[in-house]
Amino acid sequence: MKGKILLTADRTLMSDYHRNEFVGFGTCSPPNFVPEWFYRLLFFPKIKTKNGIPVAAPYGLRKIEAQLLKEGFDVLTVDPDYLDEYIDDAKVLGIHVMDPFGLGPASSTFAAILKKEPYLAKYFRLLLEKPEIKKAKRRGLKIIIGGPGVWQFKYRPEFVKEHGIDCIIDGEAEKVVGKIFRMALNGDELPQYYEVSVKEAPSLEEIPNIVAPSINGLIEIGRGCCRGCKFCSVTLRPLRWYPYEKILQEIEVNMPYTRGICLHAEDVMLYGSKNVIPNDEKLIKLHELVVEKCDGMGWSHCSLAAVAAKPKLLSKISEIIRQKQQWWGAEIGIETGSPELVKKAMPAKVLPFKPEEWPEVVRTAMGLMHDNMLVPACTLIVGLPEETEDDVIKTIELMDDLKEVRSLIVPLFFVPMGRLKDKDWFKREQMSELHRELLIKCLRHDLYWVRDLIRISFQGKIYNIALRFLYDLFVRVIEYKARSPKVLGKPVITAEK
Ligand code: SF4
Q: Considering the entire predicted model, what is its pTM?
């Protein structure tokens, strides 16, 4: 059945990254020394499709699809390479975005260093430039965009105009998409930029379950965050945790596609908690239920403070998860090693501890994760407003303490978001010697640990062994390139251990 509303996302989002979310980070890089076709194969291969319909799609897109279906719309989610087969019947095209112009922290840092447009921005642009979309636009197709990366359109008004984007929805859209898509179908004038107010944020009961699989089995277990970091935009949304039944129902929807899932929340450790102390009972029960149903799981994010607050709880959770797998991963924000900067920018991130204790909290939590086989992909922010030389030195010292921790640690240039959205971007030209030293330390750390991660990630089947060989080869090429002083001003050489 062909739909009047089509939903899609660009190629870098419509991929399952060889069933490994870590691999998806590769989409943040600009074109580099690896030929594009090979890079695409390594980091964002096409997802399987049936008649142009992807077997799985980004979770956010699935939520919108579910909401529109619930309201009786004729909707179809289509792979971007098959739009031409369906678009003639469509009146509205909904596009999901994460980082459409590569202005997010990871991609803008890569872009600043390598001085090129990141892949995820390139493929978003290529999607909008497709002849079938241009043709459909001429006969009146409406384009509506949503997703976590929509804030970037405020920096690209010419792009919006040039590509005929009719409406951009910013925020949790379940309660407003019906109204906006209906207006589009009726030919009514659409608001160019619709900011969903806190009042319009859906309650738990108003959030529909997805009706078709999400990429890599990613499912939300809750929304919102109570920590209020100044540089973050998640922070103003109310905190809501999904009940077990809702989570299990979405796992069930994913079963025909995958028996491995990724639990998504801003801090999975705080599932079911009303404050910053993990709720042992709820977290353990959730993991027992999920392990019983699935063959494997990962976490999207968790916080160091919650891990350090309940060391025994992490061991218990690790025991449950590792009944069926060797390790699991999560994204984690270290951001800085400086207590002073913690006080200024993220005082609640350290709770229930004090800002002065932050470096110790990081060391303790990272050590616990290492021992329990939780592998963190960590971020550091370079150039936070008010950052001093002493702050950078403290972060460098912290990096020294983390050498033995199995992890990836990625330094990201400051991007003005959240309550710091009016501040200036941090630019490559502002990098000091100390910043350079920090970047080099991170790269050495990552080159050392990435081999281990490739080894534990790709085991077993011949397909995995072949991938492992290719990723190893890729790392060797990076190591070779890192000997050159061209990129960071001095050679990174190779791993220092
Ligand atoms: S803890 Fe993470 S999600 Fe929460 S406000 Fe801070 S950066 Fe944002």
A: 0.91
